[in-house]
Amino acid sequence: MGTQLFVGGHIYSPVSPDATAMAVTDGVISWIGSDRVGRALHPDAEIDDLAGAFVAPAFVDSHVHLTSTGLSLAGLDLSEATSRAECLELLRTHATDTPGGDLIWGLGWDDSQWTDHASPTTDEVDAIVGDRPVYLARIDEHSAVASSALRLIAAGVDEAHGYDPQQPLTAEAHHLVRGAARELLTPTQRRRAQLRALDEAVAHGVVMVHENGGPDISGLNDFAAIADLDHPVGVRRLWGQAVATADDARALMQATGADGLAGDLFIDGAIGSHTAWLCHAYSDDADNHGVDYLDHDTVLAHLRACTEAGVQAGFHLIGDGATACVVSAFTTLIDEMGAAAVARCGHRIEHAEMVDAAAAEVLARAGVTASMQPIFDALWGGPGDLYEQRLGLPRGTTLNDFAALARAGVTLAFSSDAPVTAIHPWEQIRAAVHHHNPRNAVSPRAAFAACTRGGWRAAGETDRDRGTLVPGAPADYAVWEVGEMVTAGSSDSVARWSTDPRSRVPALPDVTPGVDLPVCLRTVRAGEVIYRRPN
Q: Which of 135, 157, 181, 297 has its Cα between 20 and 30 A from that of 190?
């Protein structure tokens, strides 16, 4: 490949905070510094003038669902609906525009944002679509409206926990109807959706995603098909299924081809669907503490088995009841095997929305990475929004405490949970920096690291240079069109040496709300351009 010398830009590198130039040789960063020195050291290099563009490590999205993301990008998007009536009208329009008899897969309705807070009923959907199978997932993908035609082919759904003849299906009933909808997709439809999702990722500076699969969220056929995709974005595949012994863990890894037995292994559900496992009941449903899919003994057995087998384990957990369950299991495992043995496996947790300081200390001792979604706070953490509706005050203001986890030493990996939120890492960074509760926010540098280095750590990568631009690191980077470059902390009220110009900390693009976020011009993996913005 030879040497390329990039000049005239802003290079985000810890080794040279004022760098304007970078050399790449055979897919590896070979030098970083100033234009003048770079030209002198590399007289035969191919010169690429960045014209003031910002060059930074490429992003890693540590929690996605490729098939449903691709379906949402080209299908029925209900996220803009402001009422039940508007949601149904969007369904009516989409049904008119698609071939009769085909499955309608919709996503994104959020009744917490509607004035009536009432979801569509089965009868209302049937009146529009007749005998067509329809699956309309709530924005959190933990409940869904399903037409009668789809319910009929979901065997046992009417006897499953979470069933209601008219209201959205939750818990096991939802898993059954989601599985029935998946089976109606052809292999071609599935493959196109997966590739469409990866195309969306690479256009936003992402070079790797972590597919969070499992029996309930995606199914084995879907999971296996992802391994056969031909796309330049890397995919780490995590399979969420509990095991009881180390031999079981090894056998399941071999059977699925998974990179870990982690990801969406559900301990509980989601707050919006009233299925997150809470220690104290929901404020808007006084008899409901949510759903516990796994008990302490199952969680501990899975962690023990994976640790003995040297396999990454992990769980989906949102409510504080689920957090208490997994923290208790980690505490027991550390007592049995020692913190070092547990930490070596790089176990992870997904979402971790309700983790207090004491729980964070245990997770840090266990070497756990928390894969979290800052946009959840942007969507649902404001006054009167979902968290306050479901949990009340002050409980609703305590969620997604990125700062407390970081202080405890828990590695953060920020992600989209696409299609729940879009694969737009700069939006995740903005949301983490401008948390509705300023005490829970982190600095732009910390948020950027969680979208880059954190993602590699969550993938089990131990090379400290991975996810940074330093000599010797793989040339995985993105080139961005940016506005103002700034150096800022997470709170204007806190004085930070890192925000002082004398600290020579590299600047990042301004992510203040209302400011235009960076636009990706080019995405590069191992020195090869895998995306270039049209025109």
A: 157
Q: How far apart are alpha carbons 369 and 363 in whole angstroms?
A: 8
129 neighbors 138 (Cβ within 8 angstroms): no
Helix H or strand E encompassing 57: strand 54-57
- CA-to-CA distance for 454 and 411, rounded, in angstroms? 7
Tokens of 271: 């707050």
Q: Please tell me the distance from the alpha carbon of residue 138 to that of residue 396, in angstroms, as a whole number.
A: 20
| Closest among 408, 493, 413, 481 to 446, alpha carbons compared | 413
Packing angle, helices 187-202 and 66-74, rounded to 10: 90
CA distances from 328 to 129, 323, 346 (A): 47, 8, 18
> Which of 50, 58, 13 has its CA nearest to residue 482?
50
529, with CB counted inside 10 A (0-12, 13-18, 19+), is exposed
Q: What share of the chain is helix, strand, coil (3-state, %, to 5)?
A: 35, 20, 40
Q: Indicate the residue type of 270.
A: A
pLDDT in tens, 395-426: 999 999 999 999 999 999 999 999 999 999 99
Q: Closest by alpha carbon to 414, among 399, 402, 397, 396?
A: 402
Residues 456, 466 contacting (CB under 8 angstroms): yes
Residue 319: exposed, middle, or buried by beta-carbon count in 10 A (0-12, 13-18, 19+)? buried
CA distances in angstroms from 77 to 70, 87, 132, 268, 286, listed in the order given = 11, 9, 18, 26, 32
Q: Are 88 and 106 in contact (CB under 8 A)?
A: no
Task: Enter the pTM of the model.
Answer: 0.95
Residue with tokens 């968290």: 387
Quick check: bond before 534 cis, omega within 30?
no
CB 211 within 8 A of CB 223: yes
Which helix (H) or strand (E) segment holds residue 109: the answer is strand 104-109
Q: Please state whether beta strands 169-170 and 143-146 pair in parallel, antiparallel, or not at all (unpaired).
A: antiparallel
Q: At residue 383, what is the residue type?
A: P
Max CA pair span of the chain: 74
3-state secondary structure of 391: helix
pLDDT tens figures, 7-33: 999 999 999 999 999 999 999 999 999
For 208, the enclosing helix (H) or strand (E) is strand 206-213
- The CA distance from 53 to 304, in Å, is 48
pLDDT 10s digits, 435-492: 999 999 999 999 999 999 999 999 999 898 999 999 999 999 999 999 999 876 555 5
Q: What b/e string do you get for 217-228 counting C-beta neighbours within 10 Å, with b at 16 or more?
A: bbbeebbebbee
Helix (H, G, I), strand (E, B) or coil at 35: helix
